[in-house]
Structure formats: structure tokens, C-alpha cells
Design brief:
single chain, 151 residues, three-stranded antiparallel sheet
Length: 151
């Protein structure tokens, strides 16, 4: 049952990312729509990484994503043994990496569209990668506290 939940969440995140990117691809090219004064939907074709690093580095970033995906799959049992924060953090990172990898392979770039105007434009996959990374980071502190209490 647990594996079905994990696969369902993974597939749900991937699908949400894919559908939102395709909606942006079809309805937002070359324009920005203001939804709130601080939030716009802005279509961007990103061939690099976060914050404009490695522009036109699609091949290198594709290899990096494949490596991250392989590492998460190979380390899955170990991640699960560290508790729910690490396990679900790994699921979120994996789903986001798969979403962006799909774009890089199928389109040659990643579709970004969430624009807060004070931060680089990003997408749903990027959001889940970030949340998953934060979950990993938080688990470092909670595990240290638990280990200290056990001593």
C-alpha cells in the first residue's frame, strides 16, 4: 500500500507539473499576465539552471538530472530508513527532476512561468525540488536533536 501512495504522489506531481507547463506553453508564449501586483504568469524557455546559471547547458543539466534520479532510486531504501521527512523529500525531488528532465529531452528547454518579480521565473517542478531539499535540510536538525536525546 505504501508504495502505491508514493507512486501516486510522484505521478501526481509529475502530471501537475506537465499540465501547468503545457498550459503555459500554449497560452503564454511571448506575454506576461498580471494576476496580482506581485505575481505574474510569464512564459520563459530556460536552457540553463536556477538564477540563469549554465545557460545553454541543456546536455550537462540532462546528465546531472539523470544522475540525481539514479541516486535517489538507488538510495531509496536508505532514504526511507531516515524517516518521513527524508522519504517524502526524496519523492518531491525525484518528481521535480523527472518533470524538468522530460522538458529538457522533449523540448530542449524547461518551461518556466511562475513569476513573483523579485525572484527568477520558475515552475511547479522547481517548487517541489526546493521543498524536497528543505525537507532534507530540516531532517538534519531533527535527526541531530533525536540522536542527542538518545545519548
Amino acid at each position: 500500500m505504501e508504495n502505491k501512495v508514493v507512486m501516486g504522489v510522484l505521478g501526481g506531481i509529475f502530471l501537475l507539473d506537465h499540465v501547468t507547463k503545457m498550459l503555459a506553453f500554449v497560452h503564454l508564449p511571448h506575454k506576461s499576465i498580471e494576476l496580482l501586483p506581485f505575481f505574474h504568469l510569464t512564459y520563459v524557455e530556460n536552457t540553463g539552471a536556477a538564477f540563469g546559471m549554465l545557460q545553454n547547458g541543456n546536455f550537462l543539466l540532462t546528465l546531472l538530472m539523470l544522475g540525481i534520479i539514479a541516486y535517489i532510486i538507488i538510495s531509496w531504501r536508505e532514504f526511507c530508513s531516515y524517516g518521513p521527512l527524508v522519504k517524502w523529500g526524496a519523492v518531491f525531488i525525484l518528481a521535480g527532476a523527472l518533470g524538468n528532465l522530460y522538458d529538457r529531452i522533449m523540448l530542449g528547454f524547461v518551461v518556466d512561468f511562475l513569476d513573483f518579480r523579485v525572484w527568477p521565473v520558475f515552475n511547479v517542478a522547481d517548487s517541489f525540488i526546493t521543498v524536497g531539499g528543505c525537507m532534507f535540510f530540516i531532517s538534519l536538525f531533527t535527526q541531530r536533536a533525536t540522536k542527542r536525546e538518545e545519548k
